[in-house]
Design goal:
By secondary structure, the protein is an alpha+beta fold. 25% of the residues lie in helices and 39% in strands. It has 2 helices and 4 strands. The radius of gyration is 19 Å and the shape is elongated. Strands 1, 2, 3 and 4 form a 4-stranded antiparallel β-sheet that branches. The chain has one domain.
Length: 102
């Protein structure tokens, strides 16, 4: 799986999971305090939080000149480098997401 697919799918699933489970927090006046404990902050009609990524990636290149950046350990097998190279690195970053309708 390439990095773009991995990050997009992770953010989608995190957002859906928070929305599906937010009803358990809506039982009383402590709602906002509970969300703050989860590092979610009120913004507009929803809340903002962060998703932190710390992933290992591999860059594979073939002798034909193609290159691909993949999440290490996810779909990394089965590639045909044909005398190419593969380099592993770590990438750490944070993505803010807004969750509306909580």
């Amino acid at each position: 799986m390439d990095v773009k697919e991995f990050v997009a799918e992770t953010l989608k699933q995190v957002t859906e999971a928070v929305k599906e489970n937010s009803s358990t927090l809506k039982n009383g006046h402590g709602y906002i305090d509970e969300l703050k404990k989860l590092n979610m902050f009120s913004h507009g009609n929803g809340f903002v939080t962060y998703v932190d990524f710390d992933i290992a990636v591999t860059e594979s290149s073939s002798k034909e000149g193609g290159a691909k950046l993949s999440v290490a350990g996810i779909g990394a097998l089965g590639g045909d480098l044909t005398e190419g190279t593969e380099v592993a690195s770590k990438v750490k970053f944070r993505v803010p997401i807004q969750i509306d309708g909580l």
